[in-house]
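It would be a great kindness if you could assist me with a short task in structural biology. The matter concerns a single protein, recorded as an amino acid sequence and a row of backbone structure tokens. The record follows directly beneath this note:
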Amino acid sequence: MRVSRALILGFGLLLAACSGDDGIRQLSSNGEGPDEFRILPAKPLSVPKDFNALPTPTPGGANSTDVDPVGDAVVALGGSRKAANSTSIPGGDAGLVNYSGRLGRAENIRATVAADDAEFRKKRGRFTNIRIVKEDRYNEVYKKQHLNQYAEQDRWRRGGATTPAAPPNN
């Protein structure tokens, strides 16, 4: 009886080790279904003031009921919808962009950071991917880099800085 339990446990660990998922925060399945978080409801239909002033329909183009979350946010914050949909840098922000890049900027920074992150996770050990149940590994991998909000708040208060309130420490 003991041998069969050990054999089953060993087989389960072997199967868990064979999973090739080395991602972080990968809790969902890789199925071919729609992503419910990318579905945006359309704006309500409305009757135009002048039917003769309607634009010519363009296949695949935008219409008045399409949702534009970025443009809506920019307009709500006082900007213009035209600037929100532009890929160029607005004139008022050119100085900020130039100043932030004064020491140089890497064009492929996202790929570089992703490669560095993958290398960091790989160095965490070869047995960290052995899991019987799929789980979120983000907190486990980056535990040493977590910031204790209560200790930081106390440190800043001891230094005389005014700090906002934090939730109670349970």
Remarks:
- The first helix runs from residue 2 to 17.
